DNA sequence: CGCATATTTGATAGATTTCAATTTATGTGG
DNA sequence: CCACATAAATTGAAATCTATCAAATATGCG
């Protein structure tokens, strides 16, 4: 609700967008002036539900969010993880009948931005429209790579790939330490990489024992980035189109 | 190159778009008049490669196309399958440095449509721009559901889900028989569902033995649609937002 | 301190891969 | 139309990975 957190969140998002889509001063100013209201979401709460038409996109200010695909019988699976600076459901602007749920993995602060405001921005500034589209394209690209991971890599490689990806994504919003905040439970993490919590636990231990990376309750510390990248066969190109 | 096949392909695409995004007569006419040149792609050939900037989007006229995610070391995995009427890389209009390859699983005829023509259409007709965005959103939605499938379902359910999904998608372009054309090799199919060809083969046999569905060399025949849907826990909502 | 939740460990069952070989389809030239 | 070469599909047996089940230990929190 505070003005400052709104600005911070938009600035974070702007930074991410700018990395891929250069924007002029006018566009930057317009984006930063976008209206929205901040909301605090309790942990373990769905704040976007399947089937309900939505009229706002959710920009994550603080916390950690999971996107769940849901089958008719109620089974759910994490298909994406969102961090601060992510517009978690930009797609919903054009497809308001969302086909997935958004769920707070930790207490989370989001900025709800009216679809109409985003449409107006896109209408007025073609370069912002392009940046939005590109953001959706990157989202799709990440989903596609997760497909490849889940379908073809073993447990250790999947975890390594996820850690490597999250690391790069946190770097894009300014994280500079040898790791990244990751306050996710092992049960949820297991869900995200398509493993049993038990097996995930064992693989995490192995990752730590071998000096590659350590999962702490609230973060991941990367001990040997090169080995992590090799293990997960990670190539950051799909997150930053145009760079390598 | 022939005028007729160009028109057919665009009409097919228009039909798919219209199912989700009502378009006016003017928009429909403009879309059908989009320029493009048809090309015949040999089987097993990449016609879009990772890294190369592209300036055309590929509308599939006839045949079957796989989208491959590619890791740095050359490993590839099918992350999506495209059928006639699909614009396989609409994303590339805003992200010309593609992060996946397009590969012809069978001899395939595509229509290459200049990005510029698509941008012009979107510029002039906001409802077409929205339809394009929605098409991308559905693509992302399909990717997300595949994530859930690959991560959490067993071999049989994954195959059933894919068959159910392909069936619905073929119905959207007018297929009315109790099945759909699917001239894909078992090796490629195994790749798409993240299984070994050997295991896929066994599961296909089981699917047939139990009277659910039969994979023939060029098609899939669905024997018991209800059971197929139940097995794969398939919910078509994510392919047709707004309908159920 | 004590409860509730999260993590860790052990033992076993089950699904899937791997390796190796065989059969069946498909296409081509004579 | 047949013989051959090639690719695709199928089968079997063993190894491996991951899930499942059940219990113990840590950890955070009021």
Can you tag this structure with a few keywords?
homodimer, 244 residues, alpha+beta, four-stranded antiparallel beta sheet, 10 strands, 45% helix, globular, DNA-binding
Largest sheet of chain A: 4 strands, antiparallel
As residue ranges, the low-confidence spans of chain A are: none
Helix content of chain A: 40-55%
Termini Cα gap of chain A: 38 Å
What is the rounded Rg of chain A? 18 Å
Number of helices of chain A: 8
Strand order of the largest sheet of chain A: 2-6-4-5
Q: Return the string of H and E elements of chain A.
A: HHEEEEEEEHHHEHHEEH
Question: In words, what does this structure look like?
Answer:
The structure is a homodimer of 244-residue chains. With 244 residues, chain A is of the alpha+beta class. The first copy, chain A, is 45% helix and 21% strand. In chain A, helix 3 crosses helix 4 and helix 6 packs across helix 7. The longest helix of chain A has 27 residues. Chain A is globular. At the A-B interface, strand 5, helix 4 and helix 6 of A face strand 5, helix 4 and helix 6 of B. Chain A binds a DNA duplex (30 and 30 nucleotides) through helix 7.
Blueprint of the fold:
The structure is a homodimer of 244-residue chains.
Chain A: H1 3-20, H2 25-32, E1 37-41, E2 46-48, E3 56-62, E4 65-70, E5 76-82, E6 100-104, E7 108-114, H3 115-124, H4 126-152, H5 155-172, E8 179-181, H6 186-193, H7 197-209, E9 213-216, E10 219-222, H8 225-232
Helix pairs in contact in A: 3-4, 5-7, 5-8, 6-7
Chain A binds a DNA duplex (30 and 30 nucleotides) through residues 154-155, 185-187, 195-199, 201-202, 205, 217.
